[in-house]
Amino acid sequence: MKNIKKTGIIALLLVLVLGILTACGGGSDSGESADTEDSADKTIKVAASPTPHAEILNSIADALAADGWTLEVVEFDDYVQPNVATTDGDVDANYFQHVPYLDQYNDENGTDLVAVGNVHYEAMGAYKGTKDSFDALEEGDQIGVPNDVTNEARALQLLAANGVITLKDGVGLEATKTDIVDNPKGIEIVELEAASIPGALPDLAVGVINANYALGAELTVDDAIAYEAEDSEAAETYVNVIVVNAGNEESEKTQALVKAIQTDEVKKFIEDQYKGAVQAKF
Predict the structure, then answer these.
(1) For residues 156 and 146, what is the distance between their CA atoms, to the nearest angstrom?
(2) How far apart are alpha carbons 225 and 134 in whole angstroms?
(3) Domains along the chain?
(4) For the chain, how long is the longest CA-to-CA vector?
(5) Cα–Cα distance for residue pair 74/252, rounded to 1 Å
């Protein structure tokens, strides 16, 4: 009986020891997993267009790092995939678009993406082609404008502001070619894919180009005839914003990102880097 008791006690002790070891082993695995999750949670992943958005984001990487965050910028060359990646949760935020485009995208795709912070405005410019001023324009000259509704209206308003054409009263940022009521020099307005206009400048008298495409083509203020005014309707409407999924507006990542980008240092970076083609709007 004594031997049986001893055997039972020993067995019990073995069970207890194994249980403790197993618990310790489980605790170690759990700790490693938690550390990995914590590390991943300190990474802010943002989808962006290469110029100027990714460049502006990269300028705040050190500031975020000082606060314990790692910034990962994922570049896209189109205006659809950044929103898809954000909706799917592949990135935490995106930075490439203005609110009118965002609203249109949500309406067309049934998504619930929201703007959480203004960053900059890209001034649309009229750039020299075969002519170096609006005064030099002659009858039959061609001016290239973007063929999407939003940016074509901006281009037409820029031309109207500089006396090249006259538009119907009140058309604002919904203007189309059919709203031109006076074209004194008989200029031909040619609608082109926005990204193709810089390459078409040798065949155009003037090209009206979005700032991101102008910068990507290494056009400078010296190549421009005119820019949209800072107080224009377009400047107030087409501010580029940080966008997240609804419900993430107050997350730590969102707040850290917006805080890091809306600073005097970023304003100076934008001013020095883009010389007026891009303007801070916060």
Answers:
(1) 10
(2) 8
(3) 43-120+242-280 (3.40.190.10), 125-227 (3.40.190.10)
(4) 117
(5) 20
Task: Please report the pLDDT score of residue 29 as a whole number.
Answer: 43
Q: How many C-beta atoms surround the C-beta of residue 39 within 10 A? A: 10
Give yes or no for a contact between 49 and 81, defined as CB atoms under 8 angstroms apart: no
User: Is residue 234 a contact partner of residue 155, using CB atoms and an 8 Å limit?
Assistant: no
Asked whether 92 and 85 are in contact (CB, 8 A), the reply is: no
pTM over 0.85: no
CB 179 within 8 A of CB 171: yes
pLDDT beneath 70: ranges in the chain: 1-40
Q: Summarize pLDDT for 235-253 with one digit per residue, the tens.
A: 889 999 999 999 999 999 9
Pairing between strand 142-146 and 206-209?
Answer: parallel
Name residue 120's amino acid.
Answer: H
pLDDT at 79: 87
